[in-house]
Structures are given as C-alpha cells and as structure tokens.
Amino acid sequence: MAWLYLVIAGLLEVAWAIGLKQTEGWTRLVPSMITVVLMIASFYFLSHAIKEIPLGTGYAIWTGIGAVGTASLGILLFGEPASAIRIACIGLIIGGIVGLKLAA
C-alpha cells in the first residue's frame, strides 16, 4: 500500500503544481483553494507512504514524479519547449525514480 500512496502523492503533486500556475500568484480564489487542498492531500499521502518507505527514497520519488509530470504537462498543455535535451533530462529523472524503486 505504501507504494500506491507514494504514486498518489506524486500525482497530486503534479496536480497542485499545475494548479499553482492557475492561481496567478494566489490572486484567484477558487484555483488557490483547490491548489491548497491538493497540496494537503499530496502531503497526507506522502506522510503515509514514508511510514514504510525510507524517507529519502520516498521523498526523492515523490519529487521525481512531480518533476516529470509537471515538466511533461508543461510541454503538452502550456507549449513549453520540447527540445531533445529537455526530453533527455526528463528521461534521466525517470531513470532515477526507477533506480530508487529497485534499490528500496
């Protein structure tokens, strides 16, 4: 269950990072409220995941899922650059996540 909680926490991190952009510097009430709820939910699931998963591993994978998901959605939703080097770096992060999972 801990790994499932960690994946959920990571996906929620992606959601709140995208939501953070929608708050426009915390000036829009509804997106700001949704973003805060998503942040709390992400931390909640992370806190349950690290009961069983080592802290360093759990935190690194959580941030990795968030980084890969947010960077990918930035490309897909916001037209951010999709250069070869950027895609390669996202691939390196995925490699790190897989490596940490295998080492856990």
How would you characterize the overall build of this protein?
It is a single chain. The protein is an all-alpha fold. The protein has one domain. 83% of the residues lie in helices and 0% in strands. The protein contains 4 helices and no strands. It has helices spanning 2-22, 29-49, 55-78, 84-103. Helix 1 runs antiparallel to helix 2 and helix 3 runs antiparallel to helix 4 (84-103). It is flat. The two termini are 15 Å apart. The chain crosses the membrane at residues 27-47, 59-78, 84-103. It is a multi-pass membrane protein. This is Guanidinium exporter.
Properties at a glance:
transmembrane, transport, 104 residues, 4 helices, single chain, mainly alpha, Small_multidrug_res, membrane, cell membrane
Write the layout of secondary structure elements.
Blueprint: H1 2-22, H2 29-49, H3 55-78, H4 84-103
Helix pairs in contact: 1-2, 1-3, 3-4
Keywords: Cell membrane, Membrane, Transmembrane, Transmembrane helix, Transport
Subcellular location: Cell membrane
Main location: membrane
Describe what is shown at a glance.
Belongs to the drug/metabolite transporter (DMT) superfamily. Small multidrug resistance (SMR) (TC 2.A.7.1) family. Gdx/SugE subfamily. The chain has 104 residues and is mainly alpha-helical. It has helices at residues 2-22, 29-49, 55-78, 84-103.
Count of DSSP-assigned helices: 4
Low-confidence stretches: none
Specify the structural class: mainly alpha
Overall average pLDDT: 97
The number of distinct β-strands equals 0
Subcellular location: Cell membrane
Organism: Rosistilla carotiformis
Membrane topology: Multi-pass membrane protein
Transmembrane segments: 27-47, 59-78, 84-103
